[in-house]
């Protein structure tokens, strides 16, 4: 039998052949892993998309809320500013500013009037002397009664109109204490005939005269008198507010005093007093914003109009506005290009922001909300990073770059845009669950890949084992045929020679007979071995353990194999001399152990060169588990390389190639030996190196002697 070779001349390897089955085994795992990775990625994208959608919707709602709250006047009311009316329901709305940046509402004060001294040269001599006396009376230098006469005389001379008005006023003032009814008439004359004129001080006469009328009204008035007072006082107060002037605050405070004096409380006038205070506030804010904007505009190079939104610092005034950054923003544009503005002090802005922040509670904690108004961005409360200024207003912050969602609201083109942005402030928390999924899925894939690989490798090695066994079986068949053919041929030849009488000498005939017997014995042993292996393989082999004399067994076996040794000119000896078993005895299947010894000694004689020595020994030794019976068979043969120390005990395994092997045998002897030793719960090992002979050691457990 030639060595098994492929057509290419190389020994076959299981690798390439196993490529396709291996691939089929690994493919599902690879497909699963790819699909898994893809779906995890989709998962992540979906998560991000959902977050973006939700963030966008939230930002939109929050922007709407922000704008709605911003555009409602602080005290509530409608979101569109009322037109200022001149009726008693007048309440100053927010600031109205022209396209050029001038204050349209509340109206500004006219500049402080310049005093215009009456030109006395317009009077004749008599008029001048009466005028002088009238002035003296007003200064308190002469009695009021004189003043009345002088005044009437002066008016009778038909002086110029300005002098007439002044004379009536002076008369009124002079008589106010002594004769209020008369004084009131004088003031009413001024109201009726000289309402358009301005007095010496440059102030309009009308409010002064009206105030005079009010002050000279009877103190304990009949009911209709009180009604007349209230009507007049309301008119005067509303005029003071709607047409503001230097006198307005003074008139209002005088009216407050009068109403309190007459009616017990200043209800009507206090409404206007409040309106005045509000209007004054607006005017102060206007001045602050104008100053702040002119600074900004100067650096921008633009000077026209106001911006839609601006943060400014309010100049500290009498009313001491809250410090910090104020906000002014356009609320509505009118056809004439003027704009209504509202403003928020830091406390109001802070309250608004807190209201927005309380709406963030429904959001996941890893989202941060940012509010941008007029170029300033404020952090929401989500991240717990709501900084505050010294005055409690939320501080400005920088807007992160990666935003999940953002909504910008501009109620009308050109009006203040408010922007609400939602950002991921804690990506680790956001992706935590996704990462966990990736981890578990990865672990699953890794585990299944591991199992699949394990499967591939075990299948591959099983395949290799199978192939090797097949190879060895083939070798076995060829060895057996070979081993049978030679002795049978020789025996047949010898027997034919004897039958034909070709061997006449009796000594020669005996030698022939011996040879035939020996060959037949060997054949029988070989067949016995083969049958033995078959029985073992099929599990039919039975052992009968009984106490045995191991020394006698060894001596017997050596005697049995002496002719074979002699044939090879080898010395077969037992050394050292067989020992006494002592307190121990061997319990074994003697026939089986004989087969062990026969196989080992036969191998030693067979593989060793001629004229060699084979030593058999027997001893009782101490082992880890107790006493043991140790057989050794040592030869000075070619030795066995370390790599084959295990494999020689496999069935059908023979070292070297079938072609080059010189020794007889079929490769089953040692496998039978191992089976028998295993059945005795013993161990067998070989101690050998190439070129240094071999020593086979068998150890069987020994039992204490009965
Ligand atoms: P066989 O002797 O019939 O070939 P065995 O199972 O008895 O089969 O032995 C297996 C192989 O172990 C042999 O082919 C041989 O190569 C090797 N072997 C066994 N005993 C010895 C020995 N004493 N010296 C060298 N090689 C040995």
Q: What small molecules are bound in this structure? A: adenosine-5'-diphosphate
Helix share bin:
40-55%
Tally of helical runs: 16
Shape: rod-shaped
Structural class comes to alpha+beta
Largest sheet: 7 strands, mixed
Give the low-pLDDT segments: 1-12, 76-90, 383-394
Question: What is the tally of beta strands?
Answer: 16
Strand proportion, as a percent range, falls in 5-15%
Give the termini distance in whole angstroms: 54 Å
Radius of gyration: 64 Å
- Mean pLDDT rating: 83
Key structural traits:
single chain; 706 residues; alpha+beta; seven-stranded mixed β-sheet; five-stranded antiparallel β-sheet; rod-shaped; disordered N terminus; binds adenosine-5'-diphosphate
Task: Provide a descriptive summary of the structure in words.
With 706 residues, the chain is α+β, with helices and mostly antiparallel strands. The chain has helices at residues 14-71, 125-138, 144-156, 161-175, 180-193, 205-216, 223-242, 248-263, 267-300, 346-358, 427-430, 432-499, 506-538, 550-567, 590-607, 669-679, and strands at residues 95-97, 103-105, 309-313, 325-333, 339-344, 367-373, 376-379, 403-410, 417-424, 546-548, 571-574, 584-588, 613-623, 626-635, 683-688, 694-704. Strands 10, 11, 12, 13, 14, 15 and 16 form a seven-stranded mixed sheet that branches. Strands 2-1-5-4-3 form a five-stranded antiparallel sheet. It has a four-stranded antiparallel sheet with strand order 7-6-9-8. A hairpin with a 2-residue loop joins strand 13 (613-623) and strand 14. Helix 7 (223-242) runs parallel beside helix 9. Residues 1-12, 76-90 and 383-394 have low confidence and may be disordered. The structure holds adenosine-5'-diphosphate. Residues 599, 603-604, 607, 635, 637-638, 640, 648, 653-655, 665-671, 694 line the site of adenosine-5'-diphosphate.
